[in-house]
Design brief:
heterodimer; A: three-stranded antiparallel sheet; two-stranded antiparallel sheet; 5 strands; about 40% strand; B: alpha+beta; nine-stranded antiparallel sheet; five-stranded mixed sheet; 13 helices; about 25% strand; globular
Chain lengths: ~50, ~475
């Protein structure tokens, strides 16, 4: 899936994917598992 | 009486009562209702479901209305074999809506505005594990064309984020996306009405995709055979009318330049759509019937697939008919989420008509990827039959063609960032030259021989079925 990159939530450490257009931008993201907001720069890991 | 969801339920209870399952025990709108649907699907059963006691909520949930092709055809006043033709015929005869006073509108038995608004009071379902939260999915989102007294309606998911705030996704290129985009560029608010819980015919009409600027409330009328009743909105009065016979209506505005994080969300593709930034609706009013049904459309499952497939079948049917008058039927199977695969049945009269049908069908809708044309002796609604025709009536590469890098579906997980996909057409019709004949039992013998006359019914019922 070339359109996405994966992020790892800094709080619950579960991972999900985000639109690739947001890659490299420091934007607010939302973890669907623990329902917390975080900045993409705070992600535990980004897998592009 | 105007057609509405209740009239449809009454008719269904009267004529096809076995199609409805009512569940009286408490079920959680978060995932549990979806688990019930999935368990039924595993048994190849697709009943309309009414959950009388959603956990922690007084409003019953109605879902899976569109999950059965037989039931959808019944709702349309058609048959499963003639949906494409009948859908197209209804689309060609729109009926303009009528306005009624707000006091006569059933959707306004309860009116909540401003601080009274609370979307959290409804049993909004969370559908799949990764979903960002509870989503409205049977939500017909209506916007108004610029400078016109014409409305555009489309089925768009809405994430209920707070008492008066929803995220909404307009798929790029769709009409509502264009209307909002133009407002956004001009720094203007976009007025939005989200309504749900109506007669299935209204849904079929309202989701039809017509040309730009056409009033799609009129399409709904074309499908019901009567003008859609509209009432003034609470927020804008006569300047924006809402469907009077819906169960629930939500009014709101999208602020220009405001986007928030939205999704992931389980899409019709049976994959999660990725998180992205999307517009937000600030809700100004909610109106509903006192004893409203909360209508859910179970996305990623048959409920979502079959409903969305009907208009595509109609569009392909019309496109092919313009060049191949012998087109008999068009069918989009569940195996392709009723979007990606398209089977076309024709009565072939001359060599080349199979490929002609394919070239006509391909531009009909960007979402369809793979097209197969078969003869009229092949049951186009049975994948096994279509696969048999491909296996025995094609010689690749002669009967196959591929178009590369054409516009596809944004939600297709294989599409590139600019939505480009490759499309394929297969001509699985028999060559016109002398060709092998398929085996058959003489029809009169098939008619005469009845298993129930040869084998006692208790034994017949006990013989196991096997899916092969």
């Amino acid at each position: 899936m070339a359109k996405v990159f994966w992020v790892v939530c800094p709080k619950c450490e579960k991972r999900y994917y985000v639109n690739r257009g947001l890659l490299g931008k420091d934007v607010q993201l939302f973890c669907p598992f623990c329902k917390s907001y975080f900045m993409s720069s705070e992600a535990k890991e980004i897998i592009a | 009486m105007a057609k509405d969801l209740r009239m449809f339920l009454q008719e269904l209870r009267h004529k096809l009562p076995e199609e409805i399952v009512e569940i009286e025990r408490e079920v959680d709108p978060a995932w549990e209702m979806g688990a019930v649907i999935q368990k039924f699907e595993e048994r190849e059963q697709y009943p309309l479901l009414i959950f009388r006691r959603p956990k922690g909520n007084p409003y019953p949930v109605i879902t899976n209305i569109f999950a059965s092709r037989r039931r959808c055809a019944f709702a349309l006043g058609s048959t499963p074999e003639h949906v494409a033709q009948d859908y197209w015929d209804r689309l060609r005869h729109p009926i303009a809506p009528v306005k009624i006073p707000a006091g006569q509108a059933p959707c306004k038995e309860v009116v909540e505005v401003g601080e009274q608004v609370n979307l959290l009071k409804f049993p909004v379902l969370t559908h799949h594990e990764w979903d960002a939260g509870p989503y409205l999915t049977a939500s017909m989102v209506t916007l108004k064309w610029h400078g016109k007294d014409a409305y555009n309606t489309g089925l768009h998911r809405c994430w209920v984020k707070a008492r008066n705030r929803m995220g909404v996704f307009f798929s790029p290129g769709k009409h509502n996306w264009h209307i909002h985009k133009e407002n956004d560029l001009q720094g203007k608010k976009t007025r939005v009405v989200t309504w749900f819980g109506h007669h299935p015919q209204v849904y079929f009409g309202a989701q039809a995709r017509g040309p730009f600027d056409v009033d799609e409330y009129s399409y709904a009328g074309g499908f019901t055979g009567e003008p859609l009743r509209l009432a003034p909105s609470e927020t804008w009065g006569d300047e924006f009318l809402v469907p009077a016979d819906a169960e629930i209506v939500i009014e709101g505005e999208i602020l220009p330049g405001v986007e928030e994080v939205e999704a992931p969300f389980g899409e019709y593709t049976r994959y999660y759509g990725e998180q992205r930034y999307n517009p937000v609706i600030e809700v100004t009013a909610v109106t509903h019937r006192k004893d409203c049904y909360f209508h859910d459309l179970y996305v990623s499952h048959a409920d979502n697939h079959i409903m969305g497939g009907f208009p595509l079948e109609a569009r392909v049917f019309d496109a092919v008919r313009s060049v191949v008058p012998g087109v008999k039927n068009v069918y989009l199977p569940l195996a392709g989420c009723c979007r990606f695969w398209c089977f076309i049945q024709i009565r072939k009269r001359t060599e080349g008509e199979g490929k002609l049908a394919l070239t006509a069908a391909m531009p009909a809708d960007s979402r369809i990827k793979y097209f197969v044309v078969v003869d009229d002796d092949v049951n186009v609604t049975h994948e096994k039959e279509v696969l048999w025709a491909i296996a025995t009536r094609t010689q690749f590469p002669d009967d196959l063609f591929i178009v590369t890098n054409t516009i596809g579906e944004a939600l297709d997980p294989m599409a590139e960032e600019n939505h480009l996909v490759n499309k394929m057409g297969i001509d699985a019709t028999r060559p016109m030259r002398p060709f092998a004949e398929r085996v058959a039992i003489p029809p009169d013998v098939l008619e005469r021989v009845r298993l129930e006359n040869l084998i006692p019914m208790p034994i017949l019922k006990e013989i196991p079925t096997e899916r092969m």
